[in-house]
C-alpha cells in the first residue's frame, strides 16, 4: 500500500557535508535492520542520487497526540509501556528520543529518526556531532551535551524519563505526577544511578502501577511503617498521598510515621522540600486539637537539627515550628525552639523562629 508512504530527503544545505550524508544513509540502514520490530517506523528504498528514502507514514507524533487529546491515565500508561518495550529491544541505542520522533500508526507506538543511533555491538562510530543536531535540549541527558560518544543506554533512559513527564503533564520538566519517583530515578544527573536500560524501566513501571492500583496496599504500607521498615512502596505511597491524608496519618500514627517521613525526605533535597510543603500549611485545617500540633513541631525540630537537610527545607521547617509555638501557642514547641537556639542555629533560621 504505497499511499501510506512518505519520502524523507536530506536538506540541500546538508548534502555537501560528507558526515551528514553518511549519517543520513546510516539512519536508513539502522531502521532497515530493525524492520522486524513492530515498534519502529518501516523504511523501504534508498535513493542515492536524490539522497532520500521512502518510509511508512505515521498518523501523528506523540507530541501532537498528547497535546491534542484529553487522555485518561490508563491510556497514557499504555503508551508508556509500548514506548519502553520498543526502545533497546535490539541493543541499539537511539540518543535522540523525544515526543517528536515517537509516532502513532493505527494506535500503535513507532519510533523513528535513528540518525544519532549507535549500535552497541559495533565499537566505533563515525558520527561527529554538531550542536544543532542535538535533538531537543530538554530530553537530552547531561552527559550527551558534552559529547555524543558519552551516550549510553542510560542516556536514552534519561530521555524516556522526560518523555514520561511530557505524557503526564504536557511539560518535560514538570515532575508533579503519579510517577514522580520513577522519573527522578530515570533522570538522575549521574547516569549510574538511573535504570540500566528501557527493559529495567519497563519492569519498574509495572511495579509502580501495581502499587498504584492495589486497593489493600494502604493497610500493608501503614503496617510496614509501624514496623519501622522502610522500602520503595513507602516512597511511592508518600509521593501520591494527599496533603490532608498525610497530616491525618502523621497525627494518628505518630513517631513511627514521622520516622518514615524523615527517611523519605533524606532520599533527596527535592523530596525533603516536597514533603514539608505537603504538611505546611495543610496541618492548619487538620490539626484541630492543641496536642495534635505537637507531632508537626517534632518533625520540624528533627529537620532543623539534621545536617542532611538543605536550607530551603529547614526554612519551611522553621516556619512550621514557629506556627505551632506562637500561633497555636504550644509550650512544647517553644521548648524545642529554645533547645535549637542553645545548639546554635543559622542566624536566618533563628530570625524565623523569633518571628522576625
Count the DSSP helices.
18
Structural class: mainly alpha
Main sheet properties: 3 strands, antiparallel
Number of strands: 8
Largest sheet, order of strands side by side?
1-3-2
**Helix-strand pattern, N to C?**
EHHEEEHHEEEEHHHHHHHHHHHHHH
The CA-CA distance between the termini, in Å, is 74 Å
Compute the average pLDDT.
Answer: 87
Helix content: 40-55%
Give the strand content: 5-15%
Shape: elongated
Radius of gyration, taken over Cα atoms and rounded to an integer in Å: 26 Å
Low-confidence parts:
119-135
Q: In short, what is this structure?
A:
The protein has 356 residues and is mainly alpha-helical. Helices cover 53% and strands 8% of the residues.
Written description of the protein model:
There is one protein chain. The protein has helices at residues 12-15, 18-33, 62-68, 73-86, 142-145, 153-169, 180-186, 198-213, 217-226, 232-240, 243-253, 255-266, 269-279, 283-286, 294-305, 311-327, 331-342, 347-353; strands at 5-9, 43-47, 52-56, 60-61, 92-93, 102-105, 108-111, 118-119. The strands form three sheets. The protein has a three-stranded antiparallel sheet, covered by helices on one side. It is mainly alpha-helical and 356 residues long. The chain has 18 helices and eight strands. Helix 13 (269-279) runs parallel beside helix 16 (311-327). A hairpin with a 2-residue loop joins strand 6 and strand 7. Residues 119-135 have low confidence and may be disordered.
